[in-house]
Amino acid sequence: MADTDQTPNASEQFAFTPEQQELRTAIRGFCAEHSDEATIRQLMESRPAFDQKAWTRIGSELGVLGLGVPEELDGSGGGLVDAAIVVEELGAALFCGPVFGTLALSIPALVAAPESPVRTETLAPLVAGTRAAAFAVPDRGGRFAPDAVSVRATSSGDTWTLSGTVARVVDADAADTLLVTAVVPDGVSLFVVDATESGVERTVLSTMDLTRPQATVEFFDAPARLLADSSQAPEVCQHALHVGSTLLAAEQVGAAQHLLDLSVAYAKERLQFGRPIGSFQAVKHRIADMLVEQEHARSAAYYAAWALQDRTDNPALVTSIAQATCSAAFTRIATDTVQVHGGIGFTWEHQTHLYFKRAFTDAALLGSAEEHRSRIAELVLDGTTTDYEVPVATG
Length: 395
Known about the structure:
Elements: H1 10-13, H2 18-34, H3 37-43, H4 52-61, H5 80-92, H6 99-112, H7 117-128, E1 133-136, E2 139-140, E3 143-144, E4 151-156, E5 159-170, E6 177-184, E7 187-194, E8 200-204, E9 214-228, H8 233-269, E10 271-272, E11 275-276, H9 281-310, H10 315-340, H11 342-345, H12 352-365, H13 369-380
Parallel strand pairs: 1-6
Antiparallel strand pairs: 2-3, 4-5, 5-9, 6-7, 7-9, 8-9, 10-11
Helix pairs in contact: 2-5, 5-8, 6-7, 6-8, 8-9, 8-10, 8-12, 9-10, 10-12, 10-13
């Protein structure tokens, strides 16, 4: 979005720049090449469920994994709005890859972490797309939950080992790197663990959405490197969860838009009683309602991205508004798309079911719409906040 020295008016505030439009076009072209329906169905049955060559291309050739990462940290610069555009297009194509674990959560955590060799060495290959990451950090409705940390850290001099189990870690099966919170004598710290080393075992879970695999991760005296100590880890983790919630909302917007486009196209071509079904009032009104929900969701998602990027609003509030709005919109549009498509919409062979399962999985990842509405009430009506403040990234 265009930057101005003065307060922008309504028409300027949410205008994408030509460069951002070109970015959208580039990602859409990439998805057309690497994320068609046949490829999605093939990858979601694979282990790990993504194409490493395509993932490396996203990082090294397109450079989008480094959006929001300062250039001095080998990133692409840009901001969260740029990253949201990328994730929206990947969501529209239902791209199979560790987008959530790497781009949405782990990279923002590393950017927010204090300067150290561990941060630099871990971040560089993630930005390049040569490695992937997962975020093994507990949350309750997108809010960091230190009391739920189930891993313990033990130190011997400058070396650390971790023991314990973290359940339902998204993208853990694809991850080379794990960011893990663990209990230490004075609280909870954040560590980096090489998932390919001994002492780490991953058990892939049977999930509803096969395009977004999850795994239980067990640590048996696994070697770890300290990324953020107990005085810094809570803020770093909460920052990552705010960014993750915002990018998840952008993904929901992209997938919902794809379903809306499918519904409109089908309503134009499907004939009933010699007329397109889109001419019938019941179908016409349903699709109109879907459009209203989608536009509302898009505004909420991009406002959250803009507000976090420019630090213009309460991060807990804007991310909860985005998640409450986008989760509800995506699940509603996914359900209505099945209805609009009628008989064919109820068959597993139709792509609507892939999106339907993603919709209900996404709605539970970082808190349900109901949980986020409750938080909005706390923040607005009660005037309270329990989220940690967003740290300033150091470079």
